[in-house]
Amino acid sequence: VKLVQSGGGLVQPGGSLRLSCAASGFPLNYYAIGWFRQAPGKERELISCISASDNEKSVGDTIYADSVKGRFSVSRDMVKYIVYLQMSNLEPTDTAVYYCATDGLVYGTCPRAEYEIWGQGVQVTVSP
After folding, report:
1. Measured between alpha carbons, how far is residue 111 from residues 18, 82, 103 in Å?
2. ∠ CA(16), CA(7), CA(119), 5° rounding?
3. Whose CA is closest to 37, among 65, 71, 77, 6?
4. What is the DSSP letter of 92?
5. 71, 84 Cβ separation under 8 angstroms
6. Mean pLDDT rounded to a whole number for the chain
7. 17, 54, 63, 117: least CB-packed within 10 angstroms?
8. Is the dihedral of CA 116, 29, 18, 90 positive or negative?
């Protein structure tokens, strides 16, 4: 049971990137997924969370940190069992390693108290 991330890379300020989080060994749709980031020398911070889907028509409620609200968007592909973090209008201060994570509890709603299963992390660098 693990989370597998993809996406990330180098982008200029004002640009966009999309990160993906897929699960190996469990149906991702039924778990709340948090997105975190950790910049060099800083603590890891929760930037977004999407609650578990409780039916085929609901992808789950979302929450965002103030630092990314209005610029980042989290969503689910209910067919592919993937969670995306769409990042727009990126700033140099967004440079960090980004992680997705879950507590592994079915039908969880955001925010979650703890996260037990983590993706491998992807580097996002915003620079001219």
Report:
1. 22, 19, 11
2. 130
3. 65
4. G
5. no
6. 94
7. 54
8. negative
Asked if 80 and 12 touch (Cβ cutoff 8 Å), the reply is no
Predicted local distance difference test score (pLDDT) of residue 60: 85
pLDDT of residue 71: 98
Strand pairing report for 62-64 and 45-50: antiparallel
| Closest to 61 (Cα-Cα) out of 48, 46, 77 | 48
| Residue 57: how many other CB atoms lie within 10 Å | 7
What is the pLDDT, as a whole number, of residue 12? 98
- Amino acid making up residue 70: G
Asked if residues 59 and 75 have their Cβ atoms less than 8 Å apart, the reply is yes
What integer pLDDT is reported at residue 114 of this predicted model? 94
pLDDT at 56 over 80: no
